[in-house]
Design brief:
Blueprint (H helix, E strand, L loop, with lengths): L6 H31 L11 H28 L8 H18 L9 H32 L3 H51 L19 H9 L2 H29 L6 H7 L6 H14 L2 H15 L15 H30 L1 H7 L4 H37 L1 H19 L2 H15 L7
Helix pairs in contact: 1-3, 1-4, 1-5, 1-7, 2-4, 2-13, 3-4, 3-5, 4-11, 4-13, 5-8, 5-9, 5-11, 7-8, 7-11, 7-13, 7-14, 9-10, 9-11, 10-11, 10-14, 12-15
Length: 444
């Protein structure tokens, strides 16, 4: 029987998220800004806002298709290193190299060649992202065997997630002011690379008895979507990620476009999200004591409460300081983002237990891969929505409307998830699997 993952293993697992989140946050925070405003001297822009949104959607479409394919290969893979670690080892270096290439468009000015470059390298970036992250997330369900352990593991992972996020969102702007965009890209790429390989210190096969799955791709996807609690959860996470990413890609524009700040000053606004520090114990406690369903609803409520106020972020605001308003919004969002990091993946780890009871196979990667397919389509749509808002309403009002649009989308998903998700059924299955699959092992 599998051992219980010790404390050092939880830290090693969590460290990997700092690497992939760092690069992901730089891309989600700055790539849109880089291409549609071009902070490079002498260049007005590389592509138009609406075209960027369409290209981002296309890149996410490629990424989405890669998710179930990589998930199937990971679930069915067998090696002395396990089912997950080999994919992470192979993908990490290419993920970093393609990240660098994204910020080197071939033409110094607006050009369809830049759009083609963006499309190709976004597709590659998201594919290697999936090649690392889908097996990485599936590893969570195999290393932690109870809901409590899974919440702990997502919490440790989330702490490193915040480290990577701070580097990608806060330090990146400071580096841009000091070294320029390309200097920032190279420095953060060098920082991310070693983090990506820390989880390889874990001997995967010591902590899981799971055997390679045998289902083909179509059969595996079909079986996954027959898991009713999972499909209900998908509605909630798709709307949450769509709204969250509308907020994320507009984040630098709230400070630069609406308040006239520099890139470095924009990064300082992200410090307001340090409220995440208090949110880790809060969300950990809430999810363990009250359940993952309430944790998810609480997370979505925070988005719905805070994001509509981006409509009022403007230097023409006289009732209160627009700077104070933006800082307040970001403070609430700091707490909300911790919920996004801790709760959803713990839910997927739990609903995937139903698969073993139904079919006798452990296919965690396909659950994360199927989620990834649909969520990444939504994330691509976030750029499409944001670009369309700017195209229709202009650079100022289009950015201001991004928050209310995101809040409405998340509200719809929250209502459906709250009404339909069968948490008791999922918990019963998880307890049944855990009772038969965990040895004494090391304690945490």
């Amino acid at each position: 029987m599998a051992k219980r993952l010790p404390f050092w293993g939880k830290i090693a697992y969590g460290a990997g998220s700092a690497g992939w989140v760092l690069l992901d946050r730089v891309v989600m925070t700055w790539l849109y800004y880089f291409y549609i405003t071009s902070p490079i001297e002498g260049v007005s822009r590389y592509v138009g806002a609406a075209l960027f949104g369409a290209v981002m959607f296309g890149g996410r479409f490629i990424d989405a298709i890669a998710d179930p394919i990589i998930a199937k290969f990971s679930d069915n893979f067998n090696s002395r290193l396990g089912r997950r670690i080999p994919f992470m080892l192979a993908s990490g270096i290419f993920y970093v190299l393609v990240f660098i290439a994204l910020f080197y468009p071939p033409v110094q000015g607006e050009s369809p060649w830049n759009a083609l470059h963006l499309f190709i390298f976004l597709g590659l970036f998201f594919t290697f992202f999936t090649g690392y992250v889908c097996p990485y997330l599936a590893l969570l369900a195999e290393l932690a065997h109870t809901q409590s352990d899974r919440v702990d593991l997502t919490t440790y992972r989330s702490i490193f997630y915040m480290v990577g996020g701070a580097l990608g969102m806060l330090v990146s702007g400071i580096l841009i002011d000091a070294l320029g965009f390309h200097g920032m890209v190279w420095v953060l790429a060098a920082v991310a690379l070693p983090f990506l390989y820390v989880p390889a210190l874990i001997k995967e096969k010591d902590y899981t008895d799971a055997q390679p799955a045998t289902m083909g791709l179509i059969e595996a996807v079909k079986s996954t979507l027959q898991n009713r609690p999972f499909t209900i959860y998908l509605v909630g996470i798709i709307t949450l990620q769509l709204g969250y990413n509308i907020f994320t890609i507009n984040l630098p524009l709230y400070a630069t476009q609406l308040l006239g700040k520099s890139e470095g000053e924009a990064s300082l606004f992200f410090l307001a999200q340090a409220t995440a520090v208090i949110a880790f114990p809060l969300l950990n406690y809430l999810s363990k004591k009250l359940g993952l369903k309430k944790g998810m609803i609480f997370t979505m409520l925070l988005f719905v409460a805070a994001l509509p106020f981006t409509l009022f972020v403007s230097n023409s605001l006289t009732v209160i300081s627009p700077t104070v308003l933006l800082l307040a919004i970001l403070g609430v969002m700091g707490i909300a983002q911790v919920g996004v990091m801790i709760v959803p993946d713990a839910i997927v780890a739990c609903v995937s237990d139903l698969e073993e009871r139904r079919t006798g196979q452990r296919r965690e990667a396909m659950y994360f891969g199927t989620q990834g397919l649909l969520v990444k389509m939504a994330m691509g749509a976030s750029a499409l929505v944001s670009g369309t808002l700017i195209q229709l309403f202009g650079d100022t009002l289009g950015v201001q409307l991004s928050g209310p649009a995101a809040a409405i989308i998340i509200l719809i998903g929250m209502i459906f998830f709250a009404a339909c998700y069968p948490e008791k059924e999922v918990l019963a299955a998880s307890r049944e699997i855990a009772a038969g699959g965990l040895s004494g092992g090391a304690s945490s």
